[in-house]
Design goal:
The protein is of the alpha/beta class. It is built from 9 helices and 8 strands. It has an 8-stranded parallel barrel with strand order 1-2-3-4-5-6-7-8, surrounded by 7 helices. Helix 3 runs parallel beside helix 5. The longest helix has 15 residues. It is globular and about 45 Å long.
Length: 210
């Protein structure tokens, strides 16, 4: 296993500058990371700066509480700008109140906007109990998502091994599981992989791969 090839090298900070995003791209290429993950305003810039790097971007980030049509349009624009993967935030409040049809249609709309591009659904595990994690995963798979993802990194917690194991058990072997949020070391990253993660989202990617 090449750990570097599982990593989405990430900078989603509100104060990220163009210079920092250039550095992110340069590091991703130098270390052969799978992709960079950035806010959507940088997608077109990256495509023009170096179109050799795979670009993931976030939609409905970080709360997930945006109108469905806004999420779908954001995904459409990001793909037109050059994104290969979309990491959308699930509508967490609707999930918790049991409005599963809303959650399903929300994901479906973004998946439709993605076309043949990869869709990851961020379920924000730190805000969910085990039953809700299972339901979020089930709805994501039903809606056609390619991955489920633990966290935005902007809520009350990040990835942990037990949640990864539960997500993998729920989605089975054919859907991706992305661990993100609070992964700072190789040991932590490998623990996620051992429990079923097929992708790692991290800003400390270089330290992780040392």
């Amino acid at each position: 296993m090449q750990l570097n090839r599982l990593i989405d090298h990430t900078n989603l900070k509100a104060d990220a500058t163009t210079a920092q995003i250039k550095k992110l791209v340069d590091e991703a290429i130098a270390n052969d990371f799978f992709s960079v993950c950035v806010n959507s305003s940088f997608v077109k810039f990256i495509k023009e700066y170096n179109d050799q790097v795979r670009i993931a971007t976030v939609v409905g980030f970080p709360l997930g509480a945006m109108a469905t049509r806004a999420k779908a349009y954001e995904a459409k624009c990001a793909i037109e700008d050059g994104a290969s993967e979309i990491d959308m935030v699930l509508e967490i409040g609707r999930l918790k109140e049991g409005n599963y049809e809303y959650v399903l249609e929300d994901i479906k709309a973004v998946k439709e906007a993605c076309g043949d591009k990869v869709l990851k659904v961020i379920i924000e595990t730190c805000l969910l109990n085990e039953e809700e994690i299972v339901k979020a995963c089930d709805l994501s798979v039903k809606a056609g998502a390619d991955f489920v993802k633990t966290s935005t990194g902007f809520s009350t917690g990040g990835a942990n091994a037990s949640d990864i194991a539960l997500m993998r058990k729920t989605v089975g072997p054919d859907v991706g599981v992305k661990a993100s949020g609070g992964i700072h070391s190789k040991k932590e990253a490998l623990e996620m992989v051992e429990n079923g993660a097929s992708r790692i989202g991290a800003s400390q990617s270089i330290d992780i791969c040392k």
